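not sure who needs this but someone in the group chat was asking about Glutathionylspermidine synthase family protein from Rhodanobacter umsongensis so here u go. i didnt clean anything up, its just raw.
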Amino acid sequence: MRRVATAERPDWRAKAAACGFGFHTIDDAPYWDESAYYAFNLREIEVDIETPSEELHAMALDMVERIVGSEQHMQQLAIPEPYRDWIAQSWRERQPHLYGRMDFAYDGTGPAKLYELNYDTPTSLFEAAFFQWQWLEDQLARGRLPAGSDQFNSIYESLVEAFGTIARGIARPFHFAAVRDSVEDQGTVAYLRDCALQAGIDCGVLAIEDLGISADGRFTDLDDNVIGCLFKLYPLEDMFRESFGQHLPRSGLQLIEPPWKALLSNKGILPLLWDAHRGHPNLLPAAFDDGGELPRGWVRKPLHSREGANIAMHLDDGRELRTDGPYRDGPCIRQACHPLTAFDGHYPLIGSWVVGDRACGIGIREDSSLVTQDSARFVPHAIIAEEARGVLIA
């Protein structure tokens, strides 16, 4: 694994505009960054990332079975009591799921270490599935990558296949929804909707803010039509707090991701996985936080923190790092500190995508600090054949 500086495509901004990649720059700061790429060999991808991703995914699904049968685990994950039976029933019915992203610390020299699961509302999908693949093809055509370079990326094909698989189980009408003013979320939903259309699924789109409730407690669209199935790029724990949240368990609304996915996006899954698989090479020691002083070598994370918000890190050398954010109250976990490795002053986090139940690609976000926050940049990657690694092109 290497970080390789390279020339940007002179027309990449025009290409981004043409395909609807409207969030390549956020708040005047670059989000998409192709001034470098990460080079991997095939063993690093297949052995160190792909295989562990599928193993951890299977372990996580096994853990859902344990959680739904345990009031103690539901309490540890701070699942509100009115929603516990509904979540448990969604698992017992095996309501279909689509995708998820695991975040790993990995530098090419040891087992990838799982930081967390993003299994309810994962983003950075369009840029991983489509735009970095376009970058690969363009750079190969320009001779900017060694001949035969590849990418761990069958995300698009896997999404279309997964939508085709679950099509018969999707209630109609089917809508995609995200926050109206989030350019990134709207872009992600537009891409997923296109994948669903490619799979032959008729589907609409609306803003989360436009969801309505009928007189008998069912969810409706702007035309007051009852919604059968809703893909919502909106955290389930936030839906619980909305005025319509109380209607979810009895509304008959099918969700994608299904309610049981909230158990896996919750960071409380990490100590439960550690307790069940103590010593697993891809897991970090983790425990539910007792609220006391954070010792050296540990990280404190709120159960529902996203984008690196409200993280407290106490490094082995005594340094302390803290990030701000909206998750100041509520339970947390502790996870053993396994700092990201710096590559030329940049700290990459590997996002491994699982669609259906299959690992199918990665995306890399890098930050200038040890905590990957919403200001992190997305950097493409390539798989370089061993015989070509001595001629990486800058």
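also The chain has a mean pLDDT of 96. if thats useful
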